[in-house]
Write a structure and sequence with these properties.
Gyrase A, domain 2
Length: 185
């Protein structure tokens, strides 16, 4: 029973860390990455479609993302989606390929992004702690219903806290790596 609770909580905590990683991948740094635009939704024949399904994305240079649509008629729709997004990038289009020049980050922009990283990391920590609280509540209710003993509940709480500490460290490591990537000149 305790192992079931721990497994359930572990899955929830893994999801929190994975969501944080996905958010950080899409966060713009000074380097080009296809992940910046791959999940961007483009209205293609009236249907919102992920950019990665409409075009070949590549990074030919460290500061450049190249977008080659499979259907040349989609160029305008892709360009419009990029302009309307919050990326702050201006697409250059030659009719067949869209190029996105990734500007170097200013010191002020680096600090702003660093604050966003810390804010998002704190949200992930709260999510991990909420998972722990849910597991603790399950342990307490099992003990009240006499499904486990008090000693088993205490052991379960200790294991739950160890698991929480481990995942908080994972969140901190992911955040530190992203912050270092942002602050890198």
């Amino acid at each position: 029973m305790i192992n079931d609770i721990l497994a359930e909580v572990k899955i929830s905590m893994d999801a929190s860390v994975d969501a944080l990683k996905k958010d950080f991948i899409a966060m713009r740094t000074g380097r080009a990455s296809t992940e910046l635009v791959s999940r961007l939704l483009v209205t293609y024949y009236g249907t919102p479609t992920a950019l990665q399904e409409l075009a070949l994305l590549s990074v030919p240079e460290p500061q450049l993302i190249s977008i080659r649509p499979y259907d040349p008629s989609a160029v305008k729709a892709i360009e419009k989606a990029i302009m309307e997004s919050d990326l702050g990038l201006n697409p250059n289009n030659d009719g067949k390929i869209i190029r996105l020049q990734i500007p170097r980050l200013t010191e002020e922009r680096r600090r702003d992004l660093s604050k966003k990283v810390n804010k998002r990391a704190e949200e992930a920590r709260v999510s991990v702690r909420n998972s722990r609280r849910s597991g603790m509540n399950d342990l307490k209710s099992f003990e009240k219903e006499k499904m486990i003993t008090e000693d088993e509940q205490k052991r379960g709480q200790k294991k739950l806290q160890e698991l929480t500490d481990e995942y908080i460290k994972k969140v901190d490591n992911v955040a530190t790596n992203k912050e270092n990537e942002i602050m890198e000149v």
